[in-house]
C-alpha cells in the first residue's frame, strides 16, 4: 500500500510461452550434460507425481478457503 504496488497475475498465454521457453532451454542443456539429463528426468517424474497430488490436496484446500 505504501508505494501503491498492485500484484497482478501474468496472462495464461504468457505463462504458457514462458513454460515452453524454459523447457526448451533445459532440454538443450540436458542434451549436452548426461548428469543434468539424469537429474531433469528424475525431476520431471517427481513433478508429474507431485502435480497429481497437488490437484487432490492443495487445490481442494484453496477451493475450500475461497
Shape: flat
Overall average pLDDT: 92
Q: How many helices does DSSP assign? A: 3
Which residue ranges are poorly predicted, with pLDDT under 50 across at least 5 consecutive positions? none
Tell me what portion of residues adopts beta-strand conformation: under 5%
N- and C-termini, Cα separation: 23 Å
> Major sheet, described briefly?
none
Radius of gyration: 17 Å
In total, the number of strands is 0
Structural class: mainly alpha
Helix content: over 70%
Order of helices and strands: HHH
What can you see in these coordinates?
The chain is an all-alpha fold. The chain contains 3 helices and no strands. 0% of the residues are buried.
Write a compact overview of the structure shown.
The chain has helices spanning 12-32, 34-56, 58-65. The chain is mostly helical and 66 residues long.
How are the secondary structure elements laid out?
Elements lengths: L11 H21 L1 H23 L1 H8 L1
Helix pairs in contact: 1-2
List keywords for this structure.
66 residues; mainly alpha
Amino acid at each position: 500500500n505504501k508505494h501503491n504496488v498492485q500484484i497482478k497475475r501474468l496472462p495464461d498465454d504468457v505463462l504458457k510461452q514462458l513454460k515452453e521457453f524454459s523447457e526448451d532451454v533445459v532440454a538443450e542443456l540436458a542434451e549436452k550434460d548426461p548428469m543434468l539429463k539424469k537429474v531433469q528426468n528424475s525431476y520431471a517424474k517427481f513433478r508429474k507425481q507431485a502435480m497429481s497430488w497437488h490437484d487432490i490436496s492443495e487445490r481442494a484446500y484453496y477451493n475450500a478457503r475461497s
